[in-house]
Design goal:
By secondary structure, this protein is of the alpha/beta class. It has 14 helices and 8 strands. It comes from Salicibibacter cibarius.
Length: about 300
Amino acid sequence: MNIGFIGYGDASFALSSGFRKEDQSIDLIAYDPMAFHSNFKELIQTRSKSENVQIVNSMEEVCKQTDLLFVAVPATKALEVAKEIKPFISEKHIYVDVTAASPEVKRKAHFEVRKSEALFVDCAMVGPLLVEKHKVPMLISGPGVEVLAEKLKNYHMNLKIISGNPGDSTAIKLVRSIYMKGFATLNIEMLQAARTFGVEDTVIEGIGHTMDGDSYESSMNRMVTGTSIHAERRSAELDGSITMLEEANIHSVMATAVKEKLDFISSFGLRDSFSGEAPEQWEDVIDSMSQSKTKR
């Protein structure tokens, strides 16, 4: 098996490094226009040499020499690449799109790729890629998932088949990102405030006491169901937090966004819908909001 990469940035470098450690004899071929005419030329050339990856001059050349393609280009280029590569791929190819493009773009890319009878796989990597390399958890969906899993079964990869529908894997990753990115950013704003007022140790200890005793699912369920009936009060409490941040000249965009979301949740009248008592499950909250939105 020969593996090709369209785009040789961080993702392709990490994957190629992992594949090379697994198999010293495997042929790895890559095309990246920036390998010849950009500020990244030296970096790409150095990385490719370190993993014995052959850099070629075109996508066509990669396709000629390989049967498994990892497409790792900027999200804005995902559909463009799918269209441009069509003349060079065939039923022998598995086209694995690991870009950060949206589910809709993944579906459109699949529409283009299937015209050449190549198998399309939507792949979402959901872990520290640069650390875990090819063993990073990968969610895969699309018509080529079974063939891909079989082809890579000896490479100790962490593949999870989601469905046969392109876009499903990416949807999971992007929904997950709302929390992961939001949580990190919210922590930064909180820690800025805590550090400014010299209370970081006590604040971190207090949050840990609240959060550490339960699993994520249990904590999430408790906070969502509680917020459903206390959104208005909690929004009012945040007014004080936002004022404090502004007085300390700390950027308060996250706290302000949380207050706006709480006001939005309050507008559904869930406190009345649940007769002032928090429901048992988070599904009750989300379903009630969805039903109320439909009626609006």
